[in-house]
Amino acid sequence: MLRPIGRGSSGEVWLARNALGTYRAVKIVREKAFKNRRPFEREFNGILKFEPVSRSHDGLVDILQVGRNEAAGYFYCVMELADDVVTSSNIHPQTYSPRTLGQDKDRLKRLPVAECVRLGAAIASALGFLHKNGLIHRDIKPSNIIFVNGIPKLADIGLVTDASEGRSFVGTEGFIPPEGSGTIRADIYALGKVLYEISTGKDRNEYPALPELLDNHAETRDLILLNKIILKACRVKTWEGYQTAEEMMLALLAFQFDKEALRKREASQFLSKVFAIVGAIVALGIFIGIIWRLIQLMKASD
User: Fold this and answer.
1) What sign does the dihedral 157-142-184-115 (CA atoms) show?
2) Which among 30, 202, 264, 269 would be 20 to 30 A from 103, CA to CA?
3) For the chain, how many structural domains are there in total?
4) Among residues 17, 70, 7, which one has the least CA distance to residue 44?
């Protein structure tokens, strides 16, 4: 154990080094941090369920060991270490600071749309894997997405729980949908808000406002296309949004690898709507004309 590198409401994270000289992150959660034993046990059980799943997907932070000290009233988990915010995988213990998406957002304000799409697809894939294993995250936000060797990963799994028992309002304000954070749809909603923040540079509570003074450059056109995916992820009416993380991932991959086809499809859908409206107007005009003609015939017969 070298030094603390993070603290939360329920525990602290330490920079550590094993006997082989490999740097790790160690999270320690103490029972006394909670008002009663139930949330302490819930977080421990969540980590136990996440641990065997974590090493099976590149988008989830690896849990390497879990231990518990009943007498001292704490448990711990050993995890792979995030890159350093400056030196990447070259770790200097005295100056180390973990790189998170939250830090990237604060430093860059807005990330390029292509990078947002890449990150979004990677995290959506990780979420889909987590959900398929019967778990939900419940606290998706930029500061809970770390980078390991440049790969984005879902971290801070303290609120992970079974999908069958997760409905609640735990999590972070602004990333929680109206119905609460304990569902698959709620995780998707939170990811949509993450993409909103990093692509627009705005706070999640400003959603759905877009940046002012948008021009007609390719980056702006891409942002507008990405925003359609974000809007669908964050639908208040849940049946109108993505029903699975894989569905959102496929939409992001389609954007990433075939933007021109997506633009053509958007244009085709727009023209279809225009033709439908014009057709409706023409039909209404014909109907009115027929009625007017009938009225004239009735007047003539009188």
Assistant:
1) negative
2) 30
3) 2
4) 70
